[in-house]
Amino acid sequence: MSLFKLRNWWKTQCPTVEPSYDSFSLHCSRLCLEEGEKDSIVVGGHSGQLCIYQPSGERASDLDLDTDDQQHQSHQRPFENAFQHSDVILEVMLPLPVIGVSSGKFTTASKNDPRLQLAVLHPMRLCIFQIVTVDGIAEHGDYTKLIPLYEHSLEKPAFSMCQGPFGGVKGREFLCVQHLDSSLRFFEQDGINYERTLATDRHLLSPVHYLPRVDCFVTVAPSWVLECYRYQDISETIESLRRHDPIWSLCIGEYALDLSVQQISNTESVIVVLGENNLLCVSDTGQVRFIKKLDYSPICFHTFVVGWYWEPDARLIAAVVSESGSLLLYENDRILWSAQLPEIPVAIERANVRGLPGALVTLGPTGSLLIGYLGSEPQLFKVPALNLAPLDLERCQRELLGLEREIRVGVDPSDASIANVEQDVTMEIVIGSPTASVYPTNIPPTDGGQLEMCELSVAVRAALNLEMLQVTIGVDPSVQCTTESFLFRDVTPNNTERFETWLYPYEAATPGSLTVTVSCSYTNKHSITRVLQRVAYLPLALFVKSCPPSKESLYKITLTAPSSGGAGLRPLFPELCAEASLSALGLQSLIDGRRMTIVAAKTTNRFRIQSDELPLLATVLECVLTRLGSGSTIGEVAEMAETPKSRVTINSIPPVSELLNYVRIHHDLRIDLKQLETELEIATGQMRLFERRFVVKLQDRSLRALDGVLMLLKRNHANVAKLCQMLKTMRQAVKLSKIHLGAVLHLFRLCYSHSTLAREGGLKYTEHLRSLLTSTVVDSTEQSFEEMLLPVLRFLEQTGPLRNTSNDGTVEDENYLFDCSDRETERTVHDVARAAQHHELVQRWLRRLLERVNGRVTSVAKSVSGSGRNSVDFEDQPLPEAPNEDEDESADRKDTGDLETTKQLTSHGTNPVSEWVNYENVSDLPL
């Protein structure tokens, strides 16, 4: 939207008010009907209406108004003229539609006659008229009439026409009509007419224009090539002597909306091409003068020369109308002015009318004719004041809650058509058994055995007609899906559509989640887009195999199941356990060979998962929670609210420092990746410099200097190849770090969601943590994961149940958030420094936030269990077991070697019975 508007000088409405006008319907020219005449405006419509206007430039006086009112009206609109009936000099209804209008000397009359003739193009006829002014003998004065001189019948429908002194004749002009089959028919004044067809097939028509200076025709071929043909070659009567190829051609790469020809000097004329995306100026010899890229869609344009072409200071001006109704004036490729039009026209011209030289004439699609000028009076508006008041987060939170209440009140829950998604579409998911994988992966070969894959089958049944139904599959980043999405078209009611795909391990990392989310999106009959989701789980045997369990590990997680224990691990893992009452199960990753152990308590319903690698715990923990009846991870907060006492409770949370360590690893790898990309950019720049120098030396034939340049070229090439390999390795490392970080975040999310804090009414805390600890780690080209996480942490620091009561460090942290620099030379250094600052803030705020949550978890656990075994310190003591119990029990077994002695010691009450199974020697393992 432009600030300035085209000022109205004169306007009227053509007789036809229907959309019957296009870019060929407007023609402005001096018809030389009288001495001192200005330009006339000729408008021809598809309805056959032909009108000629000559605005007088005089304001109409209202006889009913007094002198003061007239002066006030003149002061309000000082440059606007009212339409008068005398402004119309001719209005006639022709029997055929008018598709083109032009004026010129189209007869063999005397050269002393300055009057011009009017050429009107009909679909199957070309008519030449003479405009005659008849002196009036009554009070109404002179009047004008249209006298037909001659006409030409066309054998084929016409598209457009052009005129000019073909062949360089003096004092006469000929006509050229372009038919719908792209053939050209030339009409001379002596009754000679002939037809020519240009080379190649032309199914897409384009306007044809004549270049008087070089006696040539220009047009655009369907291959989007601007072509120039010499008139002498086209008019050659002997076929063998006729040249069919253009004298020059230029590929413009897009369809030409319109062409314009202007002579800008004694030695040069130009062709201005208005394309769909560019404004192109080409000289009459085929040389490109300039190309202007348009950031809008043009509608029409007009070109003119300010000054006389033989003057050295003559300027080429182009007026382009955009689809938004803006008028943009360019001098060559530089924009001069922009103004807003009252309506979007289909044609624009420039005319010298009485009282306003250089007026802009626009014609709308419905016949609204407007003459305006470019004034400097802007459309004033008041800029609203900036809201510099600080943002009150508590007030915004209250407003958001109020809006949510209004939305809940406005939604009718009884409307089953809106609430129930499954009444329109039902979806079933089936995951097949694992089989040997046949797809290539990024996993290096290991001794764990051959990798496997499984088939995912999705069946969708619709109850109504659907134009499109899209099924999308979401898996862990380390798992590959052969087809992630599928689109069903024209789904009929009660018809089942099936979709099969294969899932297999792809990256060299154990997945953090076995969840497979299948989303089905469609638009129902109420034009509401609905999404139906289903969750399935990949087989655990697809990624791990059984192995001997390990006694000690760095990280341990203890959980309590609602059912009674003692049954062992066979009911939970029947595909991995060989014995019926197995109490300890070791799992080894098929991808990287790392191990983890699951231990079941002997007397209670407690389980312990332990491993030396923290990301491995997420997969097994999710599998155990699912198989213990905890439900899926999607929507688990709602289930927890319904039956909090019957859910699995996790009694320990991994150290926060380990999560921060994985965040730091991801940050460091991404910084190294940026540095490698910068080094590669510098090396490739040097490579191009050495190649140019090498070519110069070859051209100069300086063989002695070739050795040094060739040596530099080889060394730089080896450096570039080395950097490319390092960059490839670093990108893979960054990808694996994102997978590991996502697995650790998912592990913390599961621990907090099933902690004692969530079971005892702390859902408001776990909901915020679930939204914060997302398992999807994404790095964009502009922002890293830490930069995206920082605003969320800042919001939780200041509002909500997890907010920090002390505001230490909040003010000084804002300086890091809004620090930026636009200097190009320091961009890389500044990006690294800014990323380091954001990483430091994420580390500090995330540690502070999770430590507050862990404190609440510890306090809730102590209040529930008192000082018993279940009150656990989540950081320092992950497992709620006493080490002395195990040592004493093991020592007694080693000394006596008799089970009865152990029972006797425990019965005397020396040491309480440990609920965990201890394996001191390898022979004690139950495997």
How many beta-strand segments?
43
Main sheet specs = 6 strands, antiparallel
Uncertain stretches: 60-67, 72-76, 630-645, 808-826, 867-915, 917-927
Strand order in the largest sheet? 38-40-41-42-39-43
The SS-based structural class is alpha+beta
Distance between the termini: 78 Å
Give the amount of beta strand, in percent. 25-35%
Choose one word for the global shape: elongated
Number of discrete helical segments? 15
Backbone CA Rg: 42 Å
Average the pLDDT over all residues and give the rounded result: 80
The level of helicity is: 25-40%
Question: What does this protein structure show overall?
Answer:
This protein is α+β, with helices and mostly antiparallel strands. About 25% of the residues lie in helices and about 30% in strands. It has 15 helices and 43 strands. The longest helix is centred in the C-terminal third of the chain and has 51 residues, at about 705-755. Residues about 60-65, about 70-75, about 630-645, about 810-825, about 865-915 and about 915-925 have low confidence and may be disordered.
Q: What's the short story on this structure?
A:
The chain is of the alpha+beta class. It contains 15 helices and 43 strands.
